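Shapes recur. Our protein:

. . .
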Amino acid sequence: MRGRTGVRAGAGQTMKQLIRRWAVVQPDSAQAQPRAAARATRRRDRLAVLALVLLVPLLVCVLVPLGAASGAVYVLPADADLVGESADVAAGHDDTLIDIAHGHGLGYEELVNANPGVDPWVPGEGTYVRLPLRRILPDTPREGIVVNLPEHRLYYYPAAKAGEQRVVITYPVSVGKMDWHTPIGLTKVVAKIKDPPWYPPESVRNEHAARGDPLPKVIPAGPDNPLGQYAMRLGIPGGSYLIHGTNKWAGIGMQVTHGCMRLYPEDIEALFKIVPVDTPVRIVNQPQKVGWADGRLYVEVHPPLSDADDSIVAPDRSDLARRVAAYARTRGLSIQWSAAESAYEAHSGIVMPVTANRVASLGAR
């Protein structure tokens, strides 16, 4: 597989693996995770030389994206669960899927999942890349911040002023990897920090030391700070979980952090300005979403979170069938089960209809 720089990847090394190695050195949770650190160290040692060869020249290319990522703003529908519309874009000669994702407010994994069979390094000039911009809103109260971990996406529901329509703003995020899970549950923003220093927790310092890359106890604000220029601290016990930016954005939209939620630099800057302290934050695990719009029932299925210790139970096809069937029973719908099965098998994150005909509006859940 040949990247934009003309460097050939080693046998068996995917773009996803290489990006993970580069992006995973970011900070996050202070929770010590010795098993994951040892596993990550062995993997990184084997690929260290290859990553340096591949990623350093790649960064020179991709640091000037197709366009600035930005949060998509949608008016909240009064009687539906879906927002946005998917689209296609033709790849340019020098484009990678990282470029295209960043330029259209998407993360890496959601774009790759929506385009099976497309080479992430070299989509090919003129290749049509599907942009998964239509979404079923997570099954949560529509207030504050909601982060759906398997979707790698953050939703913000700001309070509307008198006479204004309510909106939702959505951004791609990176979330906790393997043993460093991003905690699920309800919390809130307890502090906002401009130009935050980074105090690497002991678990992360040990991880870096094990691979011969020791970290100081504090990294001041600046271009070398992995937290970027903005951070919002969450009220999760320990005080180590943040929604923050980054100085290395190629891993946005992947499961690569030590527990925090990481955004493109321009996205965290925009979000930081509009989110007040005490905003509620709901972190959920919803790889399967079901929603109503345009007189039809839709499903959206994402790959489940990767899990090293099996502590996260991934919903299966029977869970999706039960949710769809419950919707059908209460509203008298006729379901196309072959469409629901196709959505489950694909795990593409593409919104797919599972009812054949439009019926009268049933109202949002």
Summary: The chain has three domains: 15-65+141-284, 78-136, 288-353.
